[in-house]
Amino acid sequence: MSSENTFLSRLNAVAADTEALLERLMESTPLDGERDRPARLLAAVRYASLGGGKRFRPFLVVESAALFGVDRAQALMTGAALECVHCYSLVHDDLPAMDNDDLRRGRPTAHKAFDDATAILAGDSLLTYAFDLLARPDTHPKAEVRIKLVLALARASGLGGMVGGQILDLAAEGRFNDVPKPKSLTEVETLQAMKTGALIRFGALAGAILGQADDKRLRALDRYGAAVGQAFQIADDLLDIEGDAATVGKQTGKDAAAGKATIVGVLGIPQSKQRLAALVEEASSALSVFGARADVLKAAARFVAERET
Amino acid sequence: MSSENTFLSRLNAVAADTEALLERLMESTPLDGERDRPARLLAAVRYASLGGGKRFRPFLVVESAALFGVDRAQALMTGAALECVHCYSLVHDDLPAMDNDDLRRGRPTAHKAFDDATAILAGDSLLTYAFDLLARPDTHPKAEVRIKLVLALARASGLGGMVGGQILDLAAEGRFNDVPKPKSLTEVETLQAMKTGALIRFGALAGAILGQADDKRLRALDRYGAAVGQAFQIADDLLDIEGDAATVGKQTGKDAAAGKATIVGVLGIPQSKQRLAALVEEASSALSVFGARADVLKAAARFVAERET
User: Fold this and answer.
1) What is the complex's ipTM, to 2 decimals?
2) What does the DSSP 8-state code read for residue B180?
C-alpha cells in the first residue's frame, strides 16, 4: 500500500473512532457533578460536533502519540477534546456577529439550524467539555500528563492563540477603527499561526505530551505541527480562490470579498504554492528523528497541501 | 469585631487581592505557548473582568481553603479562575442574542463598550483562561489537585451546569417552541442550581479540593455551597422585584418582564423569604464539623440572604 493510501485509511479510521467516541460522550446521562443536560442544548452540541469533518486534528494526536506507543483509546480522548475546541470555534465563528456564515460542511450552520442564543451556548458547552475530557483518567492515567494537556490546549485556544487569531482576522476585514489591518507577511503569518495554526500544532504536540517525549522529540513534533498548520491555512486560502462550493462544502470566494488577510493575498498564487511545497518539506524534515515510523505523518503533510476539500 | 464586620473586611480583602491578581494576569506579555495577546481583545477581557464585582466566588474559595490551612496565594489563583468563568458568563449572557442587557455593575455591558464580536471572543478568552490558570503550578503544587479542580470547574460550568442553566433560563422566557417552560418548584430549582448555583457551589468545593479534605469535610462544604447558591439566587430575585436600579447597578424588574422562572414567582415573596432563612440555617449547620473556624463562612451565608446590591 502506498503511503498515501495508508494515510487515507488511517485518517478514515481515526475519523470513525472519533465519531463513535464523541457519539458516546455526547449522550444525555449526566455525569458526576452534573445536573441535567438540557435536550435542546445537547442537540445543538451534537449537531455541531457529530456527523462531519475529516477529524484531521484528532488524527494528528493519534498518529503522533502512536510514535511513542501511547494507548490509542487515550489518544482518541485527547483528539476528541481537541475536536470539541475546533467545533466550538466554527460555531462561534459562523455567528451573525462574526463571519455570518449560513453553510458549513454542506449543512446549515448551528445558528441557522437552531438560533443564535443556542449556538452561542453550544459553543460555550463544547469549549468547556474539552477540558472536562482532558481531566478524566481515561485520557491518561497520570494527572501530570493530563494537566500538561490542559495547559497546552488552553494556551493554544485562548487570548494568545486561536481566539486572539479570530479578532485579528476580524481586524483584517477593517471591522475596528482602532486596530490596523494586518497586512505584511509577518502580520498575516502571526494571524494564521494563531487562528488556525495553534490547534493543529497542539494536535502534534499533544501526542508528544501523551508519550512523555524527551525534549528533542517534543520539539520535533512541535516544529512539524507548526509547519503543517501553516500549510493547512495556505491550502485553505487557495481552495477559497480556486475551489468550488459544491466540492468544498462551504461558500467559497468569501475571504477575498470580506477582505480577509491571507498569505495568498500577500504573495500571490504561484509564490504561495512554492511556499506550500517548502512547508511540506519542513514538516517532513522535522520528523527525521522518528525515521520511517513517521511516514504516515509525512504523508499527512502532503495531503494537507494537496487536498481539494 | 462582630462576625458581620469580620466577614465584610475579609470579603473586601479577597476582592482587593483578586483584583490585583487579575490585573497582573491580564497583562500583555505573552506566556509560554502564546503568541501576541491582541490589544483590543485584551482590553475587552480586562473590561469584563477588572474593576467591579464583590468577588464573592473567590471569597468562598479563599475562606473554605483557609479551613485547611491552604496557602492564600494558591486559593486566590483558583478564585481568579472561577471569577473568569463568572465574568465570561455575564458577557455572553448580556449579548443581544441572549438577555440583551445594556447595563452591568453600573457600566455599559461589554458588547456596548466594544461590539458583539469582540464581546463573544472576550467571553471565550475568559473561559479558556480559567483553565489556563487552574493548570499552573502556582495554583497547587500537586498535579492531582489541579486536575481535580479542572474537572470540577468544567462540570460546574458546562452542559450539565451553568451553560445548561442558561438555556433553561431562555426556555423559561418561552424562547423555544420545542422546550416547555420550567414552571414547577423542582424545575425552577434545577434551573437555578445550574445557572447560578453551580459556580457558587464550586467555590466552596474548590477550597476542600485545594485542602485535600476527607470525604466528610468535602461533603460538608459541598452542602454549604449548594445552600448558599440557592440563597444567592432567591435574594437576587427578591432584589429584582424590591430593589432599585441605582442601588443594584443593573436594570431591575427585568425578570418579571421577561417572564423568567424564579422561586419568588412560584412561591410568592413571603414564602420565599422563609425559604431564604431556612437556607441560611442549612448553610450554617452544614459547617458544624468545622466549629467556630467557619464563622466567617456562616456570616457569608447571612450576608447573601440580606444583601441589598
Assistant:
1) 0.95
2) P
